[in-house]
Amino acid sequence: MTKKLGGDIKVIGLGPGSLDDLSPRARRALENCDVVVGYSTYIKLIENLIEGKKIISTGMMHEAERCRAALDCALDDHTVAVVSSGDAGIYGMAGLMLEMILELPIDRRPTVEVIAGISAVQASAAILGAPLTHDFAVISLSDLLTDWSVIERRIECAAAGDFVIAFYNPKSHKRVTQIERAREIILKFRAEDTPVGIVRNVSRDNQSKTISTLENFTREPIDMFTLVIVGSSKTFVKDGFMITPRLKQ
Amino acid sequence: MTKKLGGDIKVIGLGPGSLDDLSPRARRALENCDVVVGYSTYIKLIENLIEGKKIISTGMMHEAERCRAALDCALDDHTVAVVSSGDAGIYGMAGLMLEMILELPIDRRPTVEVIAGISAVQASAAILGAPLTHDFAVISLSDLLTDWSVIERRIECAAAGDFVIAFYNPKSHKRVTQIERAREIILKFRAEDTPVGIVRNVSRDNQSKTISTLENFTREPIDMFTLVIVGSSKTFVKDGFMITPRLKQ
């Protein structure tokens, strides 16, 4: 038998913040790998599952560095798990990792599999009630990698289409204006009393939720660990539950 | 101690079709309930987990009947699991179940928790590569419960906003024109060679995937067990992987 060239990479979504959300498929892939690559916070979440394995962790924002390290290990014939929080395919590492693998000649590439996980938008929706039961749009407000004009156009289109809108990365210490601008744009299309759900630290110890309105929601505490869900014209709130009905009304 | 009035309802997303996707949180809720309510196909998926429990299963389309049965059991002090495939909060049972509970006087309501699951769009994206790595919109093409004019407007807005667009319920025996109309609308905004991923029976034994183009994809087999993902202007295909990059290009 000839030795297989290149190892194996699994790009794994860990879920939003608790091992309670980790799928058996993802857990098995973690158990079967011999190298784990990820942002240090996510490595900590799974440390009991990966004892004795080689761990390559970096701070935030070093995605390309992490993917490069994962690829190097795979090319040394290791089985590598690249971990993201939430779903690796939703603002996670899957795209960048695949792009890097595809730069290699086809006969030198490691095998690769993307393993989906529960994303923050889903866990947040479950905490709020059922705000995503009808059509929705998912938008990141971070303009680090995307021109703000593109983001603004998306907000406008999602608002015009009466989508429920979920915002990832709504605000950080340095980025404070985007969520205000998003509010202004949506107010051109929707009523001031449109429900807005705000979930912080979903699936983590200090999880909290607030249900506010399009008029007032930006007065609530919002940071990078917050998910904001703006209701459609049909979304309603009753006794602390935020619901977008599926039925014709 | 006074006896607690009303039982407990967990609305549970089972994932797209394999127990490999079932979160520990969902599994524990299934193990701890004494009544399980769901569409017969999904009950079958979990039958080994729910042996000995009372099972109320119905055919498709009887959602209201199932929710009513779940509520009746909960009001008899049972712990009830209402199961959906995918994520209970995305075109699942969470909205209807909550609406029905909220119709009761507040002191007669069972406690309720929604437990998120991996949705078909995520599992399909993972099979295709990383098509959802940037902003996306999720639209159901079923006009059973939604006026077609609303759906068409959403398709147009999502296309105008250059969202990656995921279509649930793209086509059935009776509904064959909607996906063709969606294609026509998107073609007003995007190139004919825009990648389109088609995944059938995701996470099930007969899973298949095809990557086509906006011009040609409706020639592929598409049914109610198919998820269609239309790329944005930035989405590309290479060696069988469909990727929407996150980075500025």
Secondary structure elements and pairings:
The structure is a homodimer of 249-residue chains.
Chain A: E1 8-13, H1 24-32, E2 35-39, H2 40-45, E3 54-58, H3 63-75, E4 79-84, H4 94-102, E5 111-115, H5 120-128, E6 129-130, E7 136-140, H6 148-160, E8 164-168, H7 178-187, E9 195-200, E10 208-213, E11 226-230, E12 236-238, E13 241-243
Parallel strand pairs in A: 1-4, 1-5, 2-3, 2-4, 6-13, 7-8
Antiparallel strand pairs in A: 8-11, 9-10, 9-11, 12-13
Name its key features:
five-stranded parallel beta sheet; homodimer; 7 helices; 249 residues; alpha/beta; elongated; five-stranded mixed beta sheet
Percentage of residues assigned to helices of chain A: 25-40%
Count of alpha/pi helices of chain A: 7
The largest chain-to-chain contact, stated as pair and per-chain residue counts, equals: A-B, 72 and 71 residues
Task: Give the N-to-C terminal Cα separation of chain A.
Answer: 65 Å
**Unreliable runs of chain A, pLDDT <50, ≥5 residues?**
none
Overall structural class of chain A, as computed from helix and strand content, comes to: alpha/beta
Shape of chain A: elongated
Oligomeric state as shown = homodimer
DSSP strand content of chain A: 15-25%
Write down how many β-strands of chain A occur, each being a DSSP E stretch of 2 or more residues.
13
Summed over residues and divided by their number, the pLDDT of chain A gives a mean of 94
Strand order of the largest sheet of chain A: 3-2-4-1-5
